[in-house]
Amino acid sequence: MGDESTPGVSGRGRRILLGLGAGGVLLGGVLGFFVGANGGEALTEVTPFGVLTVPISPAAMTLYGMIVVGVAIGLLYGAVSLASRFDTNAR
Questions:
Q1: Is 34 helix (H, G, I), strand (E, B) or coil?
Q2: How does residue 51 score in pLDDT terms, banded at 50, 70 and 90?
Q3: Domains of the chain: which residue ranges?
């Protein structure tokens, strides 16, 4: 039981993060589908941040949910990648 660390499989962490990201995007799509299927009675369209008008339909909300989650995860991944370049204790 020393300080020896066993080297991991190269690229395994990235595959795990990509899998989690893809799962998050799929979950965003599923939730968007449910919102689109059930929210059409109360609203006909939504305008997030006053920029884009999205109709409340299952297909449109699925696409919107997947895009929003994908962009958010992509931005977080980019920030982590940028921060890891400046890590002085990286192995």
A1: helix
A2: confident
A3: 17-82
